[in-house]
Fold:
Amino acid sequence: MPEGDTIHRTAARLAGALMGRALTRFDAPRGFDRPGARRRTTPTVGPTPGTVIEAVEVRGKYLLIRFGDGWVLETHMKMTGSWHLYRPGERWRRPPSTVRVVVGTDEWLAVCFAAPHAVLHPPSARPRVAPSPGAAGPAPVVRPEPGPTHLGPDLCRPDPSLPEADVAEILHRLRTLVPSDTRLDTALLDQRLFCGVGNVYKSEVLAAAGLNPATPLAAVGDDERRQLAAIAHRLLRANLGRTDRVTVPGGLAVYGRAGRPCRRCGTPVERALTGPHHRSTYWCPACQPPASPGMGLSAQVKGAGPAAPGK
Ligand SMILES: [Zn+2]
Structure:
């Protein structure tokens, strides 16, 4: 799954090319997904040619394109999808057989390849996620209909600090949506609590906070939870619009650095596969000691030696 900053970068590029322009082409050769259904549908109606492309927005890891006549296209890239921009006539860099959606204007074709999730919402059913002030375009209508409602507040917003309402919502979700013995590395990836943190930032946020990845939520009070959200927001925001991720001078603090010296104390960085999806987790055992004796990450995850970053 891409990090939240990747999807924001894509949205910014699409917005620059499409927003305010008249739609000249809208194709979905492989149909659209229907929430809750296994089969895709081939649309017989959709945004009308000539309608203005009003906004390109990010909600968590979903990318929404809003059309002036009320239609909303919702895509999620997961591991396989990508949006490309082409000039008319330019050669496409991925096979036409993997095209999910084409959104065209006189000047640009935005082509979505291989996205596992592409839903077209009719004008009567606006996506139900709350608007974020950093989003491009007019504020959407909020309705309890299709869309990624389960997502927590977006930590990838350009605002200098997280709004207090978002922080309160995050604290509420942390108390009510997951058990208190949930490990911090698992909680950080749970997009229902807050969204934007992927596997790279998970390790980086914990390193910046000096917290061991195995620490259970129960050991972390509201003040520290606020701090974690603020750190995640700060790191993600600092990387919006960049292609190389930098969280500390020189690059990343721990991610991808197994066996190499901690940039602060020189202790070799450790790595283990953790959580339900066995994702790579990196930490400095000295700067991020276990929250209590016997709760060390290494003790819990056996046989996960150094390996290439990723997963
Ligand atoms: Zn260290």
